Amino acid sequence: MGAGNGGNKTEQSGHDRLLDEPQFQGRKAKRADGRRRQLAILEATLRIVARDGIRAVKHRAIAKEAEVPLAATTYYFKDINDLIGDAFLLFAAKNNLRNAWLQEQSQKLLSAEAYAQNPQQFRQQLLPKIQTVLLDHIRQQVADRDNRLIEHAFLNESLRNPVIASSFQQPRNNILQAISDFLQQLGIDNAISHAHTTHGLIQWLEYLLVTDDRAENWQQAEQAIACLLSNILTAE
């Protein structure tokens, strides 16, 4: 996935909040200007990952991209693996904020009263609404092509780097748990298994549509989601 000064301040405060959440491996910045410089280094790292891949992440390249002295990158991130790991943590924290939208939209669809009156009918009525929410989510993800490039770069790196592999678990588990909780509220059996299937399909469709954004692929995506939801929500 131009602003005035007020927008920049709002964005900066959000970035500062993100920096408080992950447990970074690099040197902890104590002052606000140090935190901003550290953030600039991490943001520059993500831009390089999107453009050139993880193997292009070097201290000198990051310093040039972030427009900071080389000494600043080595001060905050002496080990390049710490820099890569912390960049992923920042990326994951940002995606947690984006994924919160999907969870919020899903929760708006629930109605305990309507479900209690006729659970099966309520689930059938929800099917096209959930389909719309998921497709909107996929459209947002596909439109943010750089983030998908970053995501897959880190996914590939997790096959080589156990630290990245471990870091990948938490955001993935958060998404799976959110989907599972939603399905449980609809009285769906084997909710966690269905959550894995749903999440897997969403990720595949994002990859397909980022690489081949044709109308027929969007039609297939819509049909695939409808088929999956029908199997989950209307099964006896």
Short description:
The chain has helices spanning 5-20, 32-52, 59-66, 70-76, 80-108, 112-117, 119-143, 145-158, 162-185, 191-211, 215-233.
Can you give a write-up of this model?
This protein has 236 residues and is mainly alpha-helical. The chain folds into two domains: 5-83, Orthogonal Bundle (Tetracycline Repressor, domain 2), CATH 1.10.357; 109-233, Tetracycline Repressor, domain 2, CATH 1.10.357.10. It contains eleven helices and no strands. The longest helix has 29 residues, at 80-108. It is elongated and about 65 Å long.
Please tell me how large the radius of gyration is.
Answer: 20 Å
Number of strand segments: 0
Indicate the percent of residues in helices: over 70%
Number of domains: 2
CA(first)-CA(last) distance:
39 Å
Largest sheet: none
Reported CATH architecture of the largest domain: Orthogonal Bundle
Structural class: mainly alpha
CATH class of the largest domain: Mainly Alpha
Oligomer category: single chain
Q: Given the structure, what is the number of helices?
A: 11
Question: For the record, what is the CATH homologous superfamily label of the largest domain?
Answer: Tetracycline Repressor, domain 2
Principal-axis shape equals elongated
Following the backbone from N to C, one meets helices and strands in this order, namely HHHHHHHHHHH
CATH topology of the largest domain: Tetracycline Repressor, domain 2
Share in β-strands: under 5%
